[in-house]
């Protein structure tokens, strides 16, 4: 096309002006379709905001952290259980739900700037190599592992490695004249989800599941088979403090108790599509009596199992109203190693109950529900549990059950009062008891190591002197003046259980603790009445 020369200056001016205008709007990530779009998408809006901050903000800013905050803010406005998992947490989260990791197989404390072995995992590589409780791991493949230089996470990374690879350790053991050279071959180390499987009485077995991970069903089946061989015709399934996990694994566990064709649960997504899950013919405990223990911290997959059994008139639910999480999440990767767990559907128990409690007053109010239950008196009096007649359902045998917020047990057991359930459980969770017990063992490991496991569980007694020593231990490390006064028996129970765990593992903690547990006592009474 021919352009007359007289118009060239005008066209050149327009081009320069347009270039200046576009340059003012342009960012490295802008594309032509964005620049000339009449309305940018919501995603473009967020992209532009991050770009503007990264390139034009007056101070240097870590935009990765801004993105993390943005993602968390978005998810918090959806529901309490849609969550963001940063890439630095993904490996730990994945291992926890996968059920194993590759390592040397030791439980340890960073004790006085040194790796102190609490206990080698039974049958694991360190156990086979001869590492014992109380050993200090000083070096790994020539790298020092003591002092203030390394954090726990860095220590773990040095002890991990490819499967079947070897790590040369230098180990200090009290009483040995020099450091021990021990080579350990790394292997898959299980992260157990079944804490204990043992007989409570001659015909009543007990299984404790702490979460529903990939390996949980196999662990559960192994424990169940062992108990059946030991004569169990009745079973306690302890799901207290179990936060949930994989939906499919919970279905497999429930299937063991339900007859072929019984509805386990159904899910419904935003479009109304329904997916039902039914029991199969493979169940191995369909005729035995089952008692499911739940409390205010039993959530999600735990509630699926409890709800499936309750709605099918199978077994007895014992304890307190469960957490109330009826939302199903799917994990979705974000491309940089991070991921989100996004709520994609709701689940319903066989009678049609949604047990998800309301979250319309915000996330903080939702997570403060425990304190609301405590203040209302619900945790000590079943009459204080609020139910709505509009959410009343009936099981096939005519039992009334309620939706709208957790599984309400058939048999209510109040929370233990006072220090036992609050202060002591806090001290145990925060590691105070574990550190104290480790120090007690260090004083005379030979004495404790010579006590057979069952003799310890049945006959060992914690004395008042150890309770007083624990008080001194706490008061030297906290700002509070702690005295147990009337709670010596409860403290002794916790201390003995922690001792048993560090000495023997394999469910010793639960076996000791359950000797004075009110829910377990209630179930034993129920099982004896039903003989």
Strand content is 15-25%
User: Class of the largest domain, according to the CATH hierarchy?
Assistant: Alpha Beta
> Helicity, in percent?
25-40%
What radius of gyration results from the CA coordinates?
29 Å
Alpha carbon gap, first and last residue? 102 Å
* Domain count: 4
CATH topology (level 3) name of the largest domain? 2-enoyl-CoA Hydratase, Chain A, domain 1
Question: Uncertain runs with pLDDT below 50, 5 residues or more?
Answer: 7-12, 14-39
Q: Main sheet, how many strands, which sense, barrel?
A: 6 strands, antiparallel
| Beta strand count | 21
Q: Provide the CATH superfamily of the largest domain.
A: 2-enoyl-CoA Hydratase, Chain A, domain 1
User: Mean pLDDT score, rounded?
Assistant: 88
Shape: globular
SS class = alpha+beta
CATH architecture of the largest domain: Alpha-Beta Complex
Number of helices: 20
Protein name: Peptidase S41
Transmembrane segments: 7-28
Pfam families: PDZ_2, Peptidase_S41
Keywords: Hydrolase, Membrane, Protease, Serine protease, Transmembrane, Transmembrane helix
Overview of the molecule:
This protein has 531 residues and is an alpha+beta fold. The protein folds into four domains: 1-60, no CATH class; 100-190, Roll (Pdz3 Domain); 194-415, 2-enoyl-CoA Hydratase, Chain A, domain 1 (Alpha-Beta Complex), CATH 3.90.226; 419-522, no CATH class. 38% of the residues lie in helices and 20% in strands. The protein is built from 20 helices and 21 strands. The strands form five sheets. Strands 3, 4, 5, 6, 7 and 8 form a six-stranded antiparallel beta sheet that branches. Strands 10-11-12-15-16-21 form a six-stranded mixed beta sheet, sandwiched between helices. Helix 9 (247-255) runs parallel beside helix 10. The longest helix has 18 residues, at 8-25. It starts with 7 loop residues before the first helix and ends with a helix. Residues 7-12 and 14-39 have low confidence and may be disordered.
